[in-house]
Amino acid sequence: MTRRGSAGPAGGAAKAAKTAFAVVALLVIVAVALGLGALAIAARYDEPTGAVGDGGTLFTVGQGESGSAVARRLAQERIIRSELLFKLMMKARSLEHSLKAGTYRVEGDMSGSRILGMIAEGRQALLRLTIPEGATVRAVALAAEAAGVAAAEDVLAAADDAALARELGVAAESLDGYLYPDTYLLPRDAGGKALVELMVGTFKRRVAEALPESAALSPEELHERVILASIVEREYRVPAEAPLMAGVFMNRLRIGMALQSCATVVYVITERQGKPHPSRIFDRDLRIDDPFNTYRRPGLPPRPICNPGMTAISAALRPAVSDYLYFRLVDEAAGEHYFSATLDEHVKAASLAVKPAGR
C-alpha cells in the first residue's frame, strides 16, 4: 500500500521535468529580455545625432575607402551615434566592401541605418548645373567648375577630344555645338568626360524627339546644320525670326555668297582673341583675318561658334523658304529685323530703324 504524499518514481520524474521547464522558460525570458534590451539600445544608438542642422550636411566617401574608415569618420563628424553599431550593421548586411564612393547629403532626421543604405546604394547628392542657350564651350566649362561638377580644364579637354567625338557619333574633331543647353543634375566631381557625354546624349535625344527628320541626315550633314544653328542662335532675338535667318544663310550658301554674320566676328573677338564682348562692330573688325570671320571667308566657319538651343536647331533643319538674302535690326528694343531680297532694299531699310529711348 502506497503512502499518501510519497512521490515515487513517477512523481520524481514529473518534478524534475517541471524544474527543467521552469529553467528553460526563465532562460528564454532572460534571452528575450536581453534581446529586447539590445534592440532598444541599438535603436537608441541608430537615431539621428541631432548635430546635423536643418540644411543637412555633405559627407564624401573616398574611392577605395574602407567601411571601417567611413564608420569612424561618420562618428567623428557626429553624423552617427555609434561607430560600433554602424560596423555591425555593415557586417550583418555584408556591406563592408560595398560602399560607393561619392558625395552624399545627410539630412538631420536620418538614422545611421538610413545613411548606410544611402551610401551602399550610391544615392549621391546631386548638384544643379544650368547651361543657357548659346553658351560657348568655355562658358560651359566655367559653369561646371563653379557648380562643383568638374574642373573647367577637364570639360574643355573632353569637348576637344576627337576620339570621344567619334565614339559619340559626331562627325567633327570636337564636340562644340553638341553640349545641349539644359538644366542637369549631377554628383559632385562627376568629371568633364561624364558631363560632356551626358550633354551630347541629351542633344541627340532632344533632336530626335523634336526633329525626327534629322535621322535622315548623315553625321556630316547634321554637323553642317549644327554649325548653322550656332550662328542663328547668336543672331536671332525673336524666335519667330530664327527660321527666316536660317533661310537667308541657306540662300547665301546656295549661291556662294559670304554669310557675313556679325555673330562670327564677335566670336573671333571674344573667343579667338580673348577680348571683352564689343559694344559695337567696326569696319576694322570685319577685316580680321580669321577662319571664323564669315565676312572674310565664304561658307560655314570651321565649327560651331556656340551650343545652340532647340529654337535655333529647329530653324537650321527647317529653314523658311524665301528669296531673302539680307536682314537688318530695325528695332533694338524689340529685337526685330527687316528681311529683304536685294542690297538696295537692305540699304533703304536703315531708315526704318527705331531709335532706342533716350537717344
- Total domain modules: 3
Q: What is the averaged pLDDT score?
A: 90
Distance N terminus to C terminus?
Answer: 135 Å
The ordered H/E elements are HEHHEHEHHHEHHHHHHEEH
Main beta sheet strand tally, sense and closure: 2 strands, antiparallel
User: Which percent range describes the beta-strand content?
Assistant: 5-15%
Strand order of the largest sheet: 1-2
The counted number of beta strands is: 6
Secondary structure: helix percent: 40-55%
Low-confidence stretches: 1-6
Rg computed from alpha carbons, rounded to a whole number of angstroms = 35 Å
Task: Tell the overall outline.
Answer: elongated
Describe the protein.
With about 350 residues, the protein is mainly alpha-helical. The protein has three domains: about 55-120, Endolytic murein transglycosylase (Dna Ligase, domain 1); about 125-210, no CATH class; about 215-320, no CATH class. It contains 14 helices and six strands. The strands form three sheets. Strands 1-2 form a two-stranded antiparallel ribbon. Strand 5 and strand 6 form a beta hairpin. Residues about 1-5 have low confidence and may be disordered.
Name a few traits of the molecule.
359 residues, mainly alpha, Dna Ligase, domain 1, two-stranded antiparallel ribbon, 48% helix, elongated, disordered N terminus
Topology:
Blueprint: H1 8-46, E1 57-61, H2 67-76, H3 83-92, E2 102-106, H4 112-121, E3 126-130, H5 137-147, H6 152-159, H7 162-167, E4 183-187, H8 192-210, H9 219-235, H10 242-255, H11 262-272, H12 283-286, H13 310-317, E5 326-331, E6 336-340, H14 343-348
Antiparallel strand pairs: 1-2, 3-4, 5-6
Helix pairs in contact: 2-3, 5-6, 6-8, 9-10, 9-13, 10-13
